[in-house]
TrEMBL record:
<dbReference type="InterPro" id="IPR021067">
    <property type="entry name" value="Glycosyltransferase"/>
</dbReference>
<dbReference type="Pfam" id="PF11397">
    <property type="entry name" value="GlcNAc"/>
</dbReference>
<protein>
    <submittedName>
        <fullName>Uncharacterized protein</fullName>
    </submittedName>
</protein>
Amino acid sequence: RLFTHGYDTYYPTHMVVYHWFEVRKYIWDEDWGTKWKLQQPAKRRIRAALGLPITVDDYDRTDFEKFTVGTKRTMNQFIDFSGINPLAPHKGTSTDQFVNCGDLKYVPVLEQT
């Protein structure tokens, strides 16, 4: 969403910040059977907001228009730029979905008329 709204993000090639993690219980460690069922509509809402296909139309539409993709760049431009294709089939590896080794070329934002 940041990309399609015109934001440019950059990531360092080396770790510059670290965080100490203590062993603790996480919310997803308990009762995954119930939480998994709650997670699925949320995942479909994200997919719909990104303009990706969904299998079931059961997600919450509260303030949905606030969370859709922007108009400064298209999702196809994001796929071309990043090498990350959320529409590629998952075949047990990320080979087809993440082809992102190499130099990235800047994608200018679309001018508003």
